[in-house]
Amino acid sequence: xxxxxxxxxxxxxxxPAVRFAGYPKYNxxxxxxDPTLIPVEGLIExxxxxxxxxxxxxxxxxxxxxxxxxxxxxxxxxxxxxIRGIDCSTDDILITAGSGQGIDLINAVxxxxxxxxxxxxxxxxxAINKLKREGQKIVGAPLDEDGLKIDALDNILADLKAKGxxxxxxxxxxxxxxxxxxxxxxxxxxxxxxxxxxxxTLIFEDECYADLIWGxxxxxxxxxxxxxxxxxxxxxxFSKTLAPALRLGYCIADWGLMSRMxxxxxxxxxxxxxxxxxxxxxxxxxxxxxxxxxxxxxxxxDTMVEAIEREFGTAVEPWTPKGGIFLWMKLPDEVDIMRLVxxxxxxxxxxxxxPEWAVEGADSKSRLRLCFALTSQQEIRDGVAAxxxxxxxxxxxxxxxxxxxxx
Length: 407
Fold this sequence. Notes:
Structural class: alpha/beta
Low-confidence stretches: 401-407
Distance between the termini: 53 Å
Number of domains: 2
Number of helices: 10
Helix content: 25-40%
Order of helices and strands: EHHEHEHEEEHEHEEEHHEEHEEEH
CATH superfamily of the largest domain: Type I PLP-dependent aspartate aminotransferase-like (Major domain)
Strand order of the largest sheet: 2-10-9-8-7-3-4
Mean pLDDT: 93
Number of strands: 15
Largest sheet: 7 strands, mixed
């Protein structure tokens, strides 16, 4: 007999988690990355070097580096930020346990239940879920192939102002948008900044995927760089460029916000050894590693697009990304993706249904997001074929005659 925990739970406690039973054969979910490109030997060498230099500091919380994180890693972030046009000091940088903690800390110091925030209509599911769970009002702003539509945003902000509402922030993913994979042009970034200033709203810029852009494509400078961060807070991550399991991200912000984020933190800092190792490894290998990873990811994307076209024919509309690790797509309106999740899981396929990545879930019932980074190219081909089979069995789509060839 177990204790009656149900009687003690808070009324808004999330639904219970299920026990982990391993990953499916075709794992197209989450922000996983290519396991063959984890630089194991390089990380072993970096770990040994870091421990020889600073290992004794592990005796103290934060390795005696203070609440903002390891100075060597902040120095690297400062250097990396220059690639995005950002001129900042190490005092402007906070190391976090993944970018998700950055989102949590910003929300903790800025938001109260009932506050209004603006998100892109399709956005990071984690950000959406956090806001809904905490009782904030989310307004979705339309996207096109170049990201957030500024004229529509201007109209939304004007309507809210007429009601006496000033959103606390506009959360945007301008460089490799999640889930669509778009890159916002420079002029649109400038327009976004002007609109935010006009209505007195902060821009919350998430650049988790900005390092993973296909060869030949160059992203405009980060929005943060366009006004020195006066109206922008910026977050990034090492999860997508090195390893998700390391749980390291960063925030670049004005001290007025940064100081409150530090005060709101309750975890005694991110793991110091991880910070030491990433600083040691990336200070010497960042460019080469990211170039190789991006080239591999582009090859996997091409394989997935080819497989989607072969298996689904004209029944699917993909948004081909300009970088990152996801392919966002739409099936015919009569397909309800949520009804495919269990049959797909039974067939060994894990996918992200569109409603989990949309402010208004009903608007995305026929959309889905597939991660192409973790699986091999052959697993991508086989998994997409298996998904098409499940979709056909459940909905009659894609029609068999509409496909060029089936393997």
